[in-house]
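Many introductory courses stop at the sequence. We go one step further.
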Amino acid sequence: MKALYNIASILGLCLFMINNTNAQTVSTTTVVIEKTDTTKSQNRNITILGEKESNNNKYPRAFGGVTFTRIDWGFSRIMDDGAFSLSDENQFMKYKKASNFGFDIAQFGIRASDNFKTYISAGFEWNYLRLENNIIFNENTSPISFEPSNVEYKKNVFTTTYLRLPLTFEWRSDKNRKGERVKVAFGAMTGILLKGTQRLKSKQDGKQKFKDNYSLASFQYGPFVRLGYDDFGIFAKYYVNDFFEKSPAQKNLNNLAFGITLGF
């Protein structure tokens, strides 16, 4: 409940910021496949940031194809048993900055009406943690472990990379006089671990890069919500799974992300 309260507070703050910001439309390309009863053939269209507006008012109808949309960029916070402060056993994860970035590259769904659709999509998501401590994570170990380093790192970035597979339910309002709509989307954000990466930079050793799964969760999942107007909006995602797996000391260490989104 405390985590959900934090998400609600963050969304409220982001909505206040949007009301004081002029939204800028960004163009990307989406392929949409539609079928009509009159032609009995597929009509392929190039669209911008999402599903193409159609003159076909018959519902339900399918849509799908290759896309580049729902581009999320924002902040990330590690939550320890519902709190933003890390416990003593998790101080090794203390970070200076943390960010989240992701986008979708494919989608397929059903539009039930002019105002409602549901779809499943696929894309990629990265989470970046700029660690404060001079540590190096051990590879091929479980649970997660690390070694203190005598090297003073200028940069120590721990990155997770997931294939994301969200299931989305989206509602949009009727068009206003400008032809734009208010949109609300929510659902379940799931993901499959692709890799973990630690990037180091120091005066002594220069740039170093290590890849491993680092006992990261093989599968992540949790609720998400997007609120927007036209092609611009905000998002919040909370992953209820543990950040590390098979690591009892890190139980209830979760990830929260929030920020802006383009194209939905």
